[in-house]
Amino acid sequence: MKAKTLIYSLITMLLLLLTGPARAQVREQRVSVDQLFELTRQNHPNLKVVAADIAIARQGTEVAKTARLPSVALGVQSYYLGNVSILNKDFSDATRVSMPHYGSNLSTEANWLIWKGGVVRNSIRIQSLKEGLAQLNYQTNEQSIKLLVLGYYLDVYKLLNQERVYEKNISLAEQRLTNIRSLYKEGVVTRNDVIRGELQLSNLNLALEVNQDNRAILNKQLTVALGLPEEVVIIPEEALATVAEVTSVQEFQAAGRQNPALQLARQNAALYDVSAKVIRADRSPSLTVFSGNKLQRPLTTSVPAVDAYSNGWSTGLSLNFNVDALYKTSQKLKLNRLQQDQAEAQVVQTGQQIEVGVNTAFIKYREAISQKNTYGVQKKMAAENYRIMESKYTNQLAILLDLLDASNAKLDAELQYTNAEANIVFSYYKLLKESGQL
To answer: Which of 206, 245, 259, 356 could form a disulfide with 436 if both were Cys (CB 3.0 to 4.6 A apart)?
Structure first.
């Protein structure tokens, strides 16, 4: 037995040594709402992906601008030239003609599109609009992600407050259980009262443990979203950021007309206007300036071939017209018009959704304020009711079940009230998000 005890002791010490440094690394970090939003903007994984779309679209604009520049080609050939056989029309009397065997060709060619119905200018415009779409998409995603992370943050705030409520009620339950056990020893109450008191204390301890586990889960989600080390324990600010009192929804409805989501829909519709100009440009001829130079060896245009270099150059204008564009372009324009109609309908739908969302968020904000006031009154009433029932039970004027009911009502009222402030803050920022101001 002593040997087993010694082994268990050594294992325990080893585990403490291994886990000790990890526990020491855990550190608390207080984060305000403003810091929360800034860390989200800088480090959230989803925003980094969306930000990459902006860089890609910006580079697409730069690529489109290169169409204004001339295209230049350089070609170099080196080859073996075999002897030539000359035959009669009936393939008889073949005559072999010796040729210079080494051949080479150096050519340069430049083309510069001068005009094609504004296709280059409009193509650049399309890429610029896509760059704007990427930026508006980033703003829309940023606001949604900010609100999501704020929800996690406020949930942590609620759980921390709930932990304090549970700890206070556990302390009261322990004190109450001590009193019940004293009364039981005096023969004033039955064993049943002791068991009920122990069950309530056990339930409170279990609720506290579940509360702490939920906070650990949310803390992990927050550290990932904010780009913080996993050993950091996020502590919300004691007094949440004060929010301005909102008395009218009109200012938020007006701000909603500039919501990034609505601007995104509008710009997407505008994209089809420019696309139509590019499609119509297919019906226009293209005017191109060209220039070229060619250095070739040997001269095979003379008989016999001459092993020498020939150099020639040319420059001029080229006018081309795609005849098939006369009957193909109309179908492309019809498709573009249908897509534009769909995009414009999307603008109307998005505007209506924003209006409904702002109105809903405003109502929920006012509801959250009303709930806080109501829960405040209920908290005071529940505390007073518990005080009265505790006094009655001590004086044997009430049964334990009444006291436990009063205790549970007090706990529920305190939990609801501690969540009320966080609900007001979330409702206010939800209103900002729906109106595009977060």
So the answer is: 259
Domain end residue (candidates: 320, 336, 367): 320
Q: For 34-188, list the strands marked E by DSSP.
A: 71-80, 84-86, 95-97, 102-115
How many folded domains does the chain comprise? 2
Beta-carbon neighbour count of residue 17 at 10 Å?
9
DSSP state of 27: E
Identify whether 40 is part of a domain.
yes
Enter the tokens of residue 227.
């780009």
Q: Are residues 334 and 233 in the same domain?
A: yes
Backbone angles phi, psi at 395, to 5 degrees: -95, 15
Q: What is the token pair recorded at 37?
A: 């939003």
What is the dihedral angle through the alpha carbons of 152, 148, 29, 418, rounded to the nearest 10 degrees?
-40
232-236 and 27-31 beta bridge pairing: parallel
Give the domain range for residue 109: 72-115+287-320
Beta bridge partners of 294: 107, 312
CA distance 366 to 246: 8
- Alpha helix locations (H) across 186-249? 191-226
Task: Give pLDDT, residue 11.
Answer: 52
pLDDT band at 18 (very low <50, low <70, confident <90, very high): very low
For residue 177, with 0-12 CB atoms within 10 Å meaning exposed, 13-18 middle and 19 or more buried, which class applies? middle
Going from the C-alpha of 299 to that of each of 103, 104, 121, 215, 435, the distances in angstroms are: 9, 11, 45, 86, 76
pLDDT in tens, 26-72: 788 888 888 999 999 998 988 988 889 999 999 999 998 888 888 99
CA-nearest of 160, 241, 213, 239 to 415 is 160
Rounded to whole angstroms, the Cα distance separating 4 from 8 reads 6
CA 271-269-345 angle, 5° bins: 160
Got the DSSP string for 139-182? HHHHHHHHHHHHHHHHHHHHHHHHHHHHHHHHHHHHHHHHHHHH
Can you give the pTM of this predicted structure?
0.77
